[in-house]
């Protein structure tokens, strides 16, 4: 967008302002289809769930601070650790990365004015919110899922868990999966079709490659989880026998289906972090990413290979050793694309002129923890070792380094990095650095001793432990680390909240970022760009002649599209202009439909099957009404 | 490149609502000039990727349980009879032709052809669904999903397939209603193409489902 606006240009901008005015107030937020507003809704919703999951984590650590703890009853402990896992995976990391970061940034980075399906985007958010509240109603009722986030049968079968705890899990995850599927379809079409003219695939930012890989991985992984949950509910509600050995079923079927989803899920969690890292590192190293095409391919390869390794979660169930050797070898192959990316990041930092501001510190923390988590990952890919440490705290240490250290650190860094873009104000650098060190040290102190207690034999998921086993001191240190970590996280939120109101004005590009979002005002206007940007390289902000060309085109009114809510659609590979799309401005149907879908799941849970069918019919009619008011009447 | 040439093709949401005939001509001309598939087509294609994976999981489960079992189908359950399901599937497969022609007619703006072709296909699909429901009820009299894992996966797989056929028919009803009342606007032109794509995929899935269902006999 133009930096120096001339009077002619100003006329075009004013026209766009009028066409793209958003509805004010609460109704505006409820009926919005603007990707930035939906991204912000996702951000606050998933941050709230992060808070809930964090409180659950602190409860767990308080329970385990010393031997024979009795803060939580055994039953409450089961619910709390299960909800901690479900919340962090399904209600925090995925919606925060794909929902908040993806929604807000993807259309900006590719020079579009919205997502490909803006109303579907709104629907994804409201359905996600419905599923999150659905799961938390369970906790408030005291019937939260209680057999671990991977919910193994037969423990989760009707016989051993007769309440409706597990039904909240089964229905809740199918419900949540609907939201994620809609989101990723939207992402893929947006990336394929809405890139600004000139942004051929080889000029697309690495951030977008990472999100494309995530979207495909989710699209193909989620059906397996949904089917597993469907079988579970058919077994529990209608007396089917999918997981019942006595009648020809097999509990290992659950484990297979769950991990066919669950392992790609691990990369689904971490790939957005890779994408955020590849945005922050070039900006603060002042140079282009080393090995751009290799990194793009590695991102996609990680997502692809992630589908072939699921049995390494099941090394103790008794499959043939040939099966195990195959999956152990496949798991080790993942190190290749991972290492390509790690070396590319390190090489970019070392050969650039890095400045270690807060977002960059989080990325360095991410690289350190990803290496620690990756190395312990190699140890558990070794079958005999894994059979020793399986179901011990060693595993808990490994996946927290990977998930918290490697997936959440870039999210925190990304929050600082794009905060000026979203709010128009700068965060406090000094407090930012303090919050980094607290979080970094807190993470290490919390999770590193878990390796040792794990090797000493402490099993996971036990609500307490007796004294005299050599675990007490290490557990005490872990709990202190968890409190430190919580202080660090609260400080991050406090810094951002205070800076939102008191921060210095940020300007367009305070981070010297290289992607398109930095060319527009902070915060961006509802239409993102007054002219659809000119793109001739993967680093559009480092091509000053293109930005000058945008100024000139704004003067001439070329590429402004002032006739309505419009954005160009381009061809899939070469991004040649294909047609101009009319985008729906706002709609009340998405929140309404989400409410009806919530009704379906609530009625299923309460065994009112015919009322559920009724809600389903209303969903169909809502969809019909939605499409009657198509974008072009 | 996003200049005046492009704005001729625009049907903005704040422009006066185009009347049916004019909108239809304009939609057909946009369709003729389009170089890549429209967004709605891509959305349907990706949704179908998810559905194909879903059926892959169901069929995978069927054979997983099959290979675990001593007797498949278990003692006391007859192996499925072959003729009617195969004939039904063959009839269903033929509906891909009218659906493909309907998508083609939509691109050329031939509304009457679209309505006739989609209606014709829908009648065959409706008869197929009726036949399948009769067979399903007949099977339920012989063995129950609550009796064995074989019954559980057998009925779940078939019910999932029937639900997809039903959804396809509902999609066609919605498309027919909108095309009949509003004409082949750009929105519903893409709707016809997406529905045709849906049926091609459901038809291919029907082959895999019926071969799985009949695998103990075949």
How would you characterize this protein structure?
With 633 residues, chain A is mainly alpha-helical. Chain A is 66% helix and 2% strand. Chain A has 19 helices and 2 strands. In chain A, strands 1-2 form a two-stranded antiparallel sheet. In chain A, strand 1 (566-570) and strand 2 (577-582) form a beta hairpin. In chain A, 57% of the residues are buried. With 218 residues, chain B is mostly helical. Chain B has a single domain (51-214), classed as Four Helix Bundle (Hemerythrin (Met), subunit A) (Up-down Bundle). The termini of chain B are far apart. Chain B has helices at residues 4-7, 20-33, 39-68, 83-94, 96-107, 111-142, 149-182, 186-214. In chain B, helix 3 runs parallel beside helix 8, helix 4 runs antiparallel to helix 8 (186-214) and helix 5 (96-107) packs antiparallel against helix 6.
Features:
heterodimer; A: 633 residues; mainly alpha; two-stranded antiparallel sheet; 19 helices; 2 strands; globular; B: 218 residues; Four Helix Bundle (Hemerythrin (Met), subunit A); 8 helices; 77% helix; disordered N terminus
Number of strands of chain A: 2
CATH superfamily descriptor of chain B = Cytochrome c oxidase, subunit III, four-helix bundle
Rounded mean pLDDT score of chain B:
89
Kindly, what is the distance between the CA atoms of the first and last residues of chain B, rounded to a whole number of angstroms? 59 Å
Estimated radius of gyration of chain A: 25 Å
């Amino acid at each position: 967008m133009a930096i120096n606006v001339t009077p002619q240009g100003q006329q075009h901008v004013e026209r766009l302002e009028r066409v793209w005015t958003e509805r004010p107030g609460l109704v505006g937020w409820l009926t919005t289809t603007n990707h930035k507003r939906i991204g912000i809704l996702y951000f606050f919703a998933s941050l709230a769930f992060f808070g809930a999951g964090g409180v659950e984590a602190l409860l767990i650590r308080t329970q385990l601070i010393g031997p024979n703890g009795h803060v939580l009853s055994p039953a409450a402990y089961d619910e709390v650790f299960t909800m901690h896992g479900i919340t962090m995976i399904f209600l925090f990391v995925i919606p925060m990365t794909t929902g908040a970061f993806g929604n807000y940034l993807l259309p900006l980075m590719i020079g579009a004015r919205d997502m490909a399906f803006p109303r579907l985007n709104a629907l994804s958010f409201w359905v996600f919110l419905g599923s999150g509240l659905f799961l938390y109603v369970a906790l408030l009722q005291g019937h939260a899922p209680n057999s671990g986030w991977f919910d193994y049968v037969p423990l989760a079968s009707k016989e051993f868990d007769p309440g409706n705890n597990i039904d909240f899990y089964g229905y809740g995850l199918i419900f949540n999966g609907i939201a994620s599927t809609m989101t990723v379809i939207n992402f893929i079409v947006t990336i394929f079709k809405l890139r600004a003219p000139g942004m051929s695939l080889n000029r697309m930012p690495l951030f977008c490659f990472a999100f494309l890989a995530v979207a495909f991985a989710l699209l193909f992984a989620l059906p397996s989880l949904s089917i597993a949950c469907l079988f579970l509910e058919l077994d529990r509600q209608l007396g089917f026998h999918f997981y019942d050995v006595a009648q020809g079923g097999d509990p290992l079927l659950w484990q297979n289906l769950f991990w066919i989803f669950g392992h790609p899920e691990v990369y689904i969690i971490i790939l957005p972090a890779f994408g955020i890292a590849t945005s922050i590192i070039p900006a603060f190293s002042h140079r282009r990413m080393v090995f751009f095409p290799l990194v793009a391919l590695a991102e996609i390869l990680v997502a692809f290979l992630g589908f072939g390794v699921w049995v390494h979660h099941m090394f103790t169930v008794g499959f043939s050793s040939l099966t195990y050797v195959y999956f152990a070898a496949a798991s080790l192959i993942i190190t290749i694309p991972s290492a390509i990316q790690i070396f590319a990041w390190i090489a970019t930092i070392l050969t650039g002129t890095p400045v270690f501001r807060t977002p960059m510190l989080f990325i360095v923390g991410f690289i350190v923890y990803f290496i620690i988590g990756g190395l312990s990952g190699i140890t558990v890919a070794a079958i005999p070792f894994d059979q020793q440490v399986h179901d011990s705290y060693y595993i808990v240490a490994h996946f927290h380094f990977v998930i918290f250290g490697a997936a959440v650190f870039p999210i925190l860094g990304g929050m600082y990095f794009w905060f000026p873009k979203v709010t128009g104000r700068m965060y406090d650098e000094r407090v930012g650095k303090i919050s980094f060190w607290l979080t970094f040290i807190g993470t290490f102190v919390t999770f590193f001793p878990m390796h040792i207690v794990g090797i000493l034999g402490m099993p996971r998921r036990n609500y307490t432990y007796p004294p005299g086993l050599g675990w007490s001191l290490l557990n005490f240190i872990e709990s202190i680390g968890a409190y430190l970590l919580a202080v660090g996280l609260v400080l991050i939120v406090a810094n951002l909240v205070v800076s939102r109101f008191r921060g210095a004005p940020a300007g367009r590009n305070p981070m010297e970022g290289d992607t398109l979002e930095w060319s527009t005002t902070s915060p961006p206007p509802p239409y993102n760009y007054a002219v659809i940007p000119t793109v001739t390289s993967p680093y559009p902000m480092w091509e000053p002649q293109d930005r000058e060309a945008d100024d000139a085109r704004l003067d001439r009114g070329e590429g402004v599209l002032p006739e309505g809510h419009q954005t160009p659609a381009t061809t899939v590979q070469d991004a040649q202009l294909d047609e101009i799309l009319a985008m729906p401005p706002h709609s009340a149907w998405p929140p309404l439909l989400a409410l009806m879908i919530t009704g379906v799941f609530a009625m299923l849970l309460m065994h009112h099957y015919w009322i559920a069918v009724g809600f389903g019919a209303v969903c169909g009619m809502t969809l019909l009404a939605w499409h009657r008011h198509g974008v072009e009447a | 490149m996003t200049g005046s040439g492009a704005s001729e093709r625009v049907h903005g949401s704040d422009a006066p609502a185009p009347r049916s005939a004019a909108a239809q001509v304009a939609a057909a001309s946009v369709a003729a000039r389009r170089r890549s598939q429209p967004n709605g087509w891509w959305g349907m294609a990706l949704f179908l990727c998810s559905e194909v994976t879903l059926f892959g999981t169901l069929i995978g489960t069927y054979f997983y349980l099959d290979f675990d079992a001593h007797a498949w189908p278990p003692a006391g359950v007859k192996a499925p009879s072959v003729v009617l399901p195969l004939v039904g599937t063959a009839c269903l497969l033929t509906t891909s032709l009218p659906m493909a022609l309907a998508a083609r007619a939509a691109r050329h703006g031939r509304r009457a052809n679209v309505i006739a072709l989609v209606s014709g296909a829908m009648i065959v699909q409706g008869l197929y669904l009726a036949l399948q429901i009769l067979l399903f009820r007949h099977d339920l009299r012989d063995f129950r999903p609550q009796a064995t894992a074989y019954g559980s996966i057998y009925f779940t797989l078939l019910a999932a397939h029937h639900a997809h056929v039903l959804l396809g028919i509902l999609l066609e009803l919605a498309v027919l209603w909108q095309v009949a009342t509003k004409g082949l606007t750009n929105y519903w032109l893409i709707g016809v193409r997406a529905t045709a794509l849906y049926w091609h995929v459901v038809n291919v899935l029907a082959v895999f489902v019926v071969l799985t269902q009949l695998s103990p006999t075949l």
